[in-house]
Specification:
about 300 residues, mainly beta, 7-stranded mixed beta barrel
């Protein structure tokens, strides 16, 4: 009995930042390991559903400038998340819908037109080596596969193992209209105050919940940085490092809030004024620099 030859995705153009992401590796914070995973989790799950994968299968997350890849076997793929032009060997194809990519053809997700992060899902998923149960790249810790560069390869999973031999590389089923959410014109983040809101003055808390902020161009997968009024502290002593969670709003010495995203550290020494509900963070993943941002009480 012979095994199926391995199939690979070859990176032709990696763009500004392209990484492999899945549902992440929750449950390891007590060992200092962050969650990582797709920043726009609903977009990654929807892309997987459209190609017949489990919702947590590994995908490509590409930022702002897109990427181009070439599979060495035929594969059904979808590009979703941030809106962008999609081409197969230079020919325009549908964004947000399954398309067939022949063996050796180049699938290109162009620069984002709306939003910030696009997701490329492939029938069978991507299968780089898992670390602590996840194939996600964590940019802060270095766990998981490194950010991709031109010439890199990523193993492709076999869709026949998940959908049956008769469906392997067959035409994608008609999906009809797909409810891809748009990029936020205004980002509204619901906040649960604490655990260190008492380290800030009452006017600072009012400012947090009423002022207009903007998304900073210095934001990344670790945190969404903000531009706007600084928050004044009522206590100025040093805070011993303590655990922080996804969505925590940490306030560094410059007073501008930083919302921790999926590659955040697991501990921090600056006070956390509040925590944003996880369900709201998908919008943060797609908010381009300069987007108006408001924090509101959850």
């Amino acid at each position: 009995m012979t095994s199926t030859p391995a199939a690979y995705l070859h990176v032709v153009r990696s763009g500004a930042l392209t990484t492999v992401q899945d549902a992440g590796r929750p449950g390891w914070a007590h060992l200092g390991v962050g969650r990582s995973g797709a920043l726009d989790a609903p977009a990654a799950r929807l892309a997987n559903r459209l190609v017949g994968n489990p919702p947590g299968a590994a995908v490509l997350e590409t930022t702002l400038t897109g990427c181009a890849v070439r599979p060495d076997r035929p594969v059904v793929a979808v590009v979703g998340g941030a809106g962008c032009p999609v081409r197969v060997d230079g020919r325009p194809v549908a964004w947000g819908e399954p398309v067939r990519v022949p063996a050796g053809a180049v699938l290109e997700a162009g620069p984002a037109v709306t939003g910030l992060r696009s997701y490329l899902a492939f029938a069978g998923g991507l299968e780089p080596d898992a670390v602590l149960g996840s194939r996600s790249a964590d940019l802060l810790s270095g766990l998981g596969p490194a950010p991709l560069g031109a010439g890199d390869t990523v193993p492709l999973g076999d869709p026949a193992e998940r959908r049956g031999p008769a469906e392997r590389c067959g035409p994608p089923a008609a999906a009809g209209p797909v409810p891809w959410p748009g990029a936020p014109v205004e980002l509204v983040l619901p906040v649960h105050l604490g655990p260190r809101h008492d380290w800030f003055t009452a006017p600072a808390l009012r400012t947090l919940l009423t002022a207009d902020y903007r998304v900073s161009p210095h934001s990344n997968r670790i945190g969404l940085r903000t531009e706007g009024p600084a928050l004044e502290r009522s206590r100025t002593e040093e805070l011993p490092s303590e655990g922080v969670v996804l969505g925590a709003i940490q306030v560094p010495p410059d007073g501008r809030p930083v919302v921790f995203l999926h590659d955040h550290p697991t501990t921090g020494g600056y006070p956390v004024v509040g925590v944003v509900a996880e369900r709201a963070l998908a919008g943060a993943a797609q908010a381009v620099p300069g987007t108006r941002l408001r924090f509101v009480r959850a």
